[in-house]
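PROTEIN DATA CARD
Card holder: Zinc metalloprotease
Chain length: 458
Origin: Aquariibacter lacus
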Amino acid sequence: MSTVLAFLFTIGLLVTVHEWGHYRAARACGVKVLRFSIGFGKPLLRWQRGETEFVLALLPLGGYVKMLDEREGAVDPADQPRAFNRKPLKQRAFIVAAGPAVNLLTAVLIYASMHLIGIEEALPVLGSPQPGSLAAQAGLQAGDRVLALRPSRPAEATKAAWQPVPSYADLRWRLTEATLDGHNVQVRVEGPGGRRELDLLLAGLDASEVDAGLGRRIGLSGPYSAARIGTPRPEGPAAAAGLREGDLVRAIDGEPVLDAVQLRERIRASVVEGGTPRALTFLIEREGRELSLSVQPRLGAESGPPMPRIEALVGGLPELVLLRQGPLDALVMGAERTVEVAVLSLRMLGRMLIGEASLKNLSGPLTIADAAGQTARSGLIPFLGFLALVSVSLGVLNLLPLPMLDGGHLVYYIVEGLTGRPISEAWLDRLQRGGLAIMALMMSLALYNDLARLLGQH
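Structure generated from the sequence above:
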């Protein structure tokens, strides 16, 4: 239920913001607005305010603002100056562009609010890189804290400034941008091996691999988490062996364990011939003392094939940092992040069109609903971040030059401005049909990706 409510709130709020942009721009230009509808289909609620009817409809996946227009029916001569089609080209373009513009402005304000309130994020301290991965080949180690990044293309390496990396989320964002750009990066780290500058060869990755699994392909396992035991399940292998909550695992079978990633890998690797897990000798630290315990993992499965488990939480919480800015800096950072997300979204869409990025990145309502529910349960800041991301996406999507969208209408107005006459009704009809087909294809693909993710195929 919380997922459904969070989804409805997200879509309802951002659609209302979008349509409010059109509505306010139309009113400012003297256009008569007949209806302001949130949702489509059968009206659930309706009320009249002045000359405009406000409607809350059954299907919440969109909305519209209906303006007086002679192309849609006869207009009283007294109202003709207030018809949309009678307005100058600049005013019509302003009204159409106002919806996406308000979505982008909303994202700026949400991101600014997050920076003003304070964002608690994991520090950019790395867990164990996957063996043989790009991160491992670069020399990154568990416990390395990433201090800064810069491009390492020969023409830029000596000129580009080091960019500080304040959080793990920022690290992932910058690596995504670098992969899309197709260049390597230099990484300045400080950790068990001292302060070092390493080359991470991202240029070897195909830009089509930029998706939610990019971090794993680079070899990043997530923020550093100590190899600490959480609450053991009663009568499970961990409890039977005498492991307790808070125990720090130092080694298994005499081999050091650096973090929670390695601890999980060693447990999973305990299977011997025949598929039975063997007993492992844990060297643990408890209240300043070292103890040796024999732990017999048990095969179990939550999803996928059975794996050896000790039936206890593994890994402590990553170290967090509170990032907070003053009002002016928060607003600047909100604008910068909105531009970054918008540009990245456009680049991803462009690469998907030419086959250089995976079409799996296209998400639909099921993925949005799931993300809305998860972020809402995680707290205010994660949910605000999700709202901002969806608001940017709505703004960018509506500016695409497709006939069904605001961007398509803006293209019409550009053509009208260049030729001095509007596009003919016959061409408008053809373009609308083509745009509808493209939108239907995109929605079908997004829904397919949603279902594939739910079924574990992506």
